[in-house]
Amino acid sequence: MLIPSIDLQNGRIVQLVQGEKLAIEATDPEPWIARFSHFPRVQLIDLDAAKGHGDNAGMVATICGRLPCRVGGGIRSIERAQAVLDSGAHAVIASSALFRDGKVDAVFARALAEAIGADRVIAAVDSRGGHVAIHGWRTVLPITAVEAVRALEPFCGEFLYTHVDKEGLMQGTDIDAILAVRRATTRRLTAAGGITTWDEIDRLDASQVDAVVGMAIYTGQLPLERDGGA
């Protein structure tokens, strides 16, 4: 299944290359809300909240009121997770807060799962150079994505795996790396990072992996109209 991605920064929809270089900016979210209205799942990331530079809470609430969103960005506490759910999100995406001292923080992961329900926790495991990357992909940990997924499995209903090395480049993703994560967990899995074509989406779908796509959609390289777009 294709899951469109909406990234928010400074009150606008953006797409960044490698999480840093601004490539696309849209001041009016309405056309994209309309285009994504028939999708059963949409991924919404508040980049400002993720970076600790304010937030886009108003836009998040507005978009969640119109689209079925899973929301990430700055989920560092149970209170923040609950606030995002209260704004209309169907699930929260937790990432850097799930790690501490170079390994999985099972204490926080368990507390979050118990507070809001593991089925509403999506654990984000981002990989750069073969190892988990946190803090906006700037801090690389000694553990691998597969090791992290195995440790986090009891505390979430789904994983989001991002292959950072391919993120935003539109050169295709690393199917083998994604399938290694697929084999490591029985939880639902969504993959992101460089997914550009329907062929890749179909290959992932055949292995029960959903695909989050951003840049290829916003540039028009991936048409949404095929088979109804969802």
Name the descriptors.
230 residues; alpha/beta; eight-stranded parallel β-barrel; 29% strand; globular
The CATH superfamily label reads Aldolase class I
Report on the biggest sheet. 8 strands, parallel, barrel
Q: Architecture, CATH level 2?
A: Alpha-Beta Barrel
Please indicate the count of domains. Answer: 1
Main sheet: strand order: 1-4-5-6-9-12-13-14
Order of helices and strands: EEEHEHHEHEEEHEEEHEHEHEH
Q: Can you give the mean pLDDT?
A: 93
- Uncertain regions spanning at least 5 consecutive residues: none
Short synopsis of the structure:
The protein is of the alpha/beta class. The protein has helices at 30-35, 47-51, 57-64, 78-86, 106-116, 145-152, 175-184, 198-206, 215-218, and strands at residues 2-9, 12-17, 21-26, 42-46, 69-72, 91-94, 99-100, 103-104, 121-128, 131-134, 139-140, 158-163, 188-192, 209-213.
Walk me through this protein's architecture.
With 230 residues, the chain is α/β, with parallel strands linked by helices. The chain has one domain: Alpha-Beta Barrel (TIM Barrel). The protein is built from nine helices and 14 strands. It has an eight-stranded parallel barrel, surrounded by six helices. Strands 7-8 form a two-stranded antiparallel ribbon. The longest helix has 11 residues, at 106-116. It is globular and about 40 Å long. The termini are close together. The mean pLDDT is 93.
List the helices and strands and how they pair.
Layout: E1 2-9, E2 12-17, E3 21-26, H1 30-35, E4 42-46, H2 47-51, H3 57-64, E5 69-72, H4 78-86, E6 91-94, E7 99-100, E8 103-104, H5 106-116, E9 121-128, E10 131-134, E11 139-140, H6 145-152, E12 158-163, H7 175-184, E13 188-192, H8 198-206, E14 209-213, H9 215-218
Parallel strand pairs: 1-4, 1-14, 4-5, 5-6, 6-9, 9-12, 12-13, 13-14
Antiparallel strand pairs: 1-2, 2-3, 7-8, 9-10, 10-11
